[in-house]
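fwd from M.: "can u put these together and see what the complex looks like"

so here's what she sent:
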Amino acid sequence: MKLRSWVLIFIACNLLTFSTISAFRLSRSQPTERISGSAGDVLDDNPVGRLKVFVYELPSKYNKKILQKDPRCLTHMFAAEIYMQRFLLSSPVRTLNPEEADWFYVPVYTTCDLTPNGLPLPFKSPRMMRSAIQLIASNWPYWNRTEGADHFFVVPHDFGACFHYQEEKAIGRGILPLLQRATLVQTFGQRNHVCLKQGSITVPPYAPPQKMQSHLIPGKTPRSIFVYFRGLFYDVGNDPEGGYYARGARAAVWENFKDNPLFDISTEHPTTYYEDMQRAIFCLCPLGWAPWSPRLVEAVIFGCIPVIIADDIVLPFADAIPWEDIGVFVDEKDVPYLDTILTSIPPEVILRKQRLLANPSMKQAMLFPQPAQPGDAFHQVLNGLARKLPHDRSVYLRPGEKLLNWTAGPVADLKPW
Amino acid sequence: MKLSALHQSYLNRRRSPLDSSVDASSKSFLAVFWLVLHCLCCLISLLLGFRFSRLVFFFLVSTPSSSNLYSPPFRPDLPPPRIDLTPSNATTAEAKTSSSRVVVGRHGILIRPWPHPDPVEVMKAHRIIERVQREQKAVFGAGAKGSRTVIAVTPTYVRTFQALHLNGVMHSLMLVPYDVVWIVVEAGGVSNETASIVGKSGVRVIHVGFDQRMPNTWEDRGKVEVLMRLRALRVVKEEKLDGVVMFADDSNMHSMEFFDEIQNVKWFGAVSVGILAHSGNAEEMVMSMDKRREMEEEESSSLSSLPVQGPACNATDKLIGWHVFNTLPYAGKSAVYIDDVAAVLPQKLEWCGFVLNSRILWDEAESKPEWVKEFGLLNENEGVESPLSLLNDPSMVEPLGSCGRQVLLWWLRVEARADSKFPPGWVIDPPLEITVAAKRTPWPDVPPEPPTKKKDQMSLSQGNNNVVVIPKHQQQQQQRSSKVRKPKRRSKRNKHEAKPTDTATQVSSSTKHHQERN
């Protein structure tokens, strides 16, 4: 046992040294402020040695074949589920002995059914998930041992495990009954919401690290844009009458500030989007159909202070990153007074936020680089899982006890996949 | 759909108006009721701006737990509803979980009463931007590497265009974010004109006089300028000024990045200089440009049309040579005298493209590299052509500006005629005597001076007034011309000014012989 732990540490050291192959060169020589206190130091924790993860060997129809059918899944913002599996397969926390595993991972790509436009359709996802769980429950005893309480799944879609993109329907469906006890790793997070389970780990959406790195501009380029935003304000396709999309918040931003010279907002798709973000002081991250947005990741990488307009949102790794110190939170009802709010922030506070954002560990925690690097989002997920250890006694069921209802949910979900 | 049923019932009613069976009465009552309801709904829809039948369905059919409706939503073709910020009609429906203040469904678009920028806030935002940029500069720019003093060496002399050139250099130096020491060496001794210009700069100025007068040919001028620069370098040595020495010739144009870049020099650096060699004759320049372009296309070389002088590097960014100015296209056509109309050519390597650490010039050999010659022992009479003569080993020069790829300053030589006059200090005092009113001025016309009957031309300058001679027939032409032109004309026949009008040339040509010198 001791020998094995030494071997693992040795492997871990090698992995860390060899993972500088595609090093992400972040802002050089800017004075950064360390996110002090217990929250910030947690970002640099190394999960290796603190937990063990067993990866189920599912038939490739659950993962590889789906990816082969549509390789676009590798680059869209839900690609975290694919990269998570790849990372875990080669990570030192992986164990091949399920008896000593603390956590079990089920690699099923539920978000890879894309429309021609590239948007994922969640209609088959509940059935796929259900079928995967039935498979592992019948082939391995570990699911039934805890009814999934020490298993974790990556469900990065709009409303997590509710598996729908429309909020009302997602709320109506609720979280898949079979996942009631499992830990969910998802991008969606909103307090007091049906689709956010207690104990879930919120991760950022996937943003391509290489693409963002290739658009970095010198740090001395002066930040001359006050507020920057590019995106839709009205979704005329799905919400022609307005008021539904973004709960009217984006439309309010447009109507109130479209003629304000301080606000550089439009619906264009400029090629200099990343460069413009690096020239802006504030970047708006309002909610869309779901509260989370890849703009948060982009703002953090490019050093632009995120202005988060989404009531009750739960941000990624909220237990490790002090978002209140880094970003500006604006209630949706205060959107018409956004300019007053932003201009009344004292300059020292703004400079402090920029210094916090410049912290490389902060930026690294938002990314999913390949190959994985220390401190990146994969490691933060593992840190989050490690923080939940050791498992509570109640996780293990008494023999014969059944808590999950395998027939709950809409009838259409019960069909085999 | 209710409305289609309504429509159908209406049609039925229309089809059989006289159908008066017993149950038809109740049916007709129902139909009338539906019709009235339909009209009412139409009116309400008209007011609200959308068809609210869906809302009715929502209320009746869907589960009450998930919908929550606010006041009227947006319609793209109507002006957006201006809703005050007191939320109206808020029915507090609950989601399935515990009290959440976020509700799903249609929300109103909140717009404040006057959605336009507030100037006070715009000013506050600009102050924030300024503060952020200052911080950025402190972190990345000037302060980061330790700012060194910029020692600018400018040879100058009093002439017509001195104010033009010297003000340009002065403003550039005033904008430099580092400390500046400006050494102005003046040919012909220290003069009040120069002193008055440089005195306004606000930077530390060392104004040195040089005993020779500036000669009239470009070649000789270059030589004298070299001597003047060496004089300035001697000042640096004697005063033990510490910093980066750059040569700011007074007609050059510097970019601000140039000053940032030269902070990186360790001992001796070189930058690329864009050469704006031109001739006064626009046509000739166009022709030469075309010819050069043809030559370039023939050779298929990748030279840009702007000649650049500076360090040449190989692929690994090591200095291997120099790009110099190609004087062949100008062979025989270059200017010799300062006011010639031909192209003014630079030297092989201009001084302005080099910067040096001032410690090179100091006496003690402390940490001075051995490939630098001792400045104190330099013999000027041997002919110092370029700053490379200060070095034993010219290959140790550091190429700056990403190895010469960035052009950070531009070289230009533009001078007025040697005999051109300008009012001292560019102040016309006392005002000129003769005024000629132009037609169509916004101010009331002053009746023109009656022309003297004796001569065709009016008599000339008395005392210190510089007056333009306007022959009588020119005067009439002037009156005919519709331009509002100030009649006080300078007699400069400098082709470098704005397009000369025909009157001017005629004035100049006819008065060439009659102009008296002051």
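replying to her w this: The first helix of chain A runs from residue 2 to 18.
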